[in-house]
């Protein structure tokens, strides 16, 4: 795994500032502590930080073809590089290394922009072709690896693996994008292609960007999408066997490394499945690691130990301090822009632990989106079934009124907390799902934002992110619709961003077999009743895993990483909450309603309401502003 950065002159062939390029590359040293290098030519410069995993001896980057006319800097792993290398050699290409990087160079020479369709893996790369006067940027299909870019005022395109590489450019415009603010307080992250800055962007998953010397910049173009098109009906037993075989193959491809390799093992279904497959594919014991929590409601370490014992892994575990809130400022520096998933804290710690033992770790990320594991899928499908019983003309007024009249009851048992359900039923599927996953509801954001910010937004609404993704999407029912939305938003924007930054902070490479694009494409063809049945998510996945894992591991209640935010904000972080939310930094932005900020703090700290998620998002935003100001 690596970090990349670069500059490309779209207006001519002006000399690239090597000092600036070195500074950009230096911000990514944590991603690649083993080697670094810079290559420049008239009008272009590529920089690379290397974490050596494959072809340690000769895989140094930037790397080029025989005459240096094509150069690439790349972050990721191409798992089918040996097969592609064999094919390209048969076509006459000459290789000088055994690295997967060189495969990209010759694939470009042979297939041009279509080369990305031949790559199976996780990647973000920049390739310069001197003969064509082109710079080609590409990002993998699911967005496992990040890539940021910005067009500078002088016509130079700058790019990097993290936003901090662009922040190293003194003249990068850093005006906060107000639409990104709206999206952040809805989703808890800034969805691609936007960043918190109006002049910087994320290259979206499954997209490429081709720039031509002397031409106006083109727009990014998609080269892949997942299609939920039903395949040929098969007996369930056959589907189970094929699913297990496909998972085994996806894991096998990700075991190639010249450095110590292991896996995260939380004790949940997905990570346990990955470890079970690894154990059957390796000669020695699998290295596994997990973190535990002192609070039993959050702790899964006993299940992790049970799986580790079953498969004879070399298991390492550490109990995480439940009051690990000191990482707040560290996380602000890691993520570069506001990012409000508090599970980034234990994720950071498990990556820290893993790096003491291995350089590469396999994870179970992506299983919930791919195979319908989230409880919210069950609720969303049930709500849609209820909607189907009422004409739209009746549903909106009736459930809308019930939602307005029913009291908010966060303190009550779930059965009595119907306000959100009524509100969701009054909407269509997408509006209801957006409402359910939003960090702060529409009504809360309307109160949170100042009149000035609402005016600047000009009626822009964060749901447009979901609406945009669904235009042209191949989906066939409610479940496939919300799965598709998560694959396009929550997965790359939250989950994969969290893991990439937390792992790279410790120079740890994380591989995600459940997001092998061929596996994702195949599971998308399965009917929804094989994924969600009688309220059981991942139905067919769990059936396929019954020979490998005990039933109480497969069918227990999902836990996941969680931290005790509500207690923090009434206890050890009480004063920091007041200083941050009621202090001058948030006020000086002009974005927020001071009266509502005060209400959030007072209501939460008095124990009358649980505003822990909004407070955390505001603390993170304040930490971002503090870093921006250098305070």
Explain what this protein looks like in three dimensions:
- This protein folds into three domains: 2-222, Aminohydrolase, N-terminal nucleophile (Ntn) domain (Glutamine Phosphoribosylpyrophosphate, subunit 1, domain 1, 4-Layer Sandwich), CATH 3.60.20.10; 236-372 and 482-554, Rossmann fold, CATH 3.40.50.620; 564-631, no CATH class.
- It is 43% helix and 15% strand.
- The chain contains 28 helices and 17 strands.
- A six-stranded antiparallel beta sheet has the order 2-3-1-9-8-10. A six-stranded antiparallel beta sheet has the order 4-5-6-7-11-12, with helices on one face. A five-stranded parallel beta sheet has the order 15-14-13-16-17, sandwiched between helices.
- The chain is globular, with a radius of gyration of 24 Å.
CATH class membership of the largest domain? Alpha Beta
User: Structural class of the helix and strand makeup?
Assistant: alpha+beta
Using the alpha-carbon principal axes, give the shape.
globular
**Low-pLDDT segments, ≥5 res:** 411-416
Q: What percentage of the residues does DSSP assign to strands (E)?
A: 5-15%
What's the domain count? 3
- Identify the CATH architecture of the largest domain: 4-Layer Sandwich
The amount of helix comes to 40-55%
Count the strands?
Answer: 17
Strand order in the sheet with the most strands? 2-3-1-9-8-10
Task: Assign the CATH superfamily of the largest domain.
Answer: Aminohydrolase, N-terminal nucleophile (Ntn) domain
Q: What is the count of DSSP helices, taking H or I runs of 4+ residues?
A: 28
Average pLDDT taken over every residue = 91
What is the CA-atom radius of gyration, in angstroms? 24 Å
At CATH level 3, the topology of the largest domain is Glutamine Phosphoribosylpyrophosphate, subunit 1, domain 1
Taking the alpha carbons of the first and last residues, their distance comes to: 32 Å
Biggest sheet features = 6 strands, antiparallel
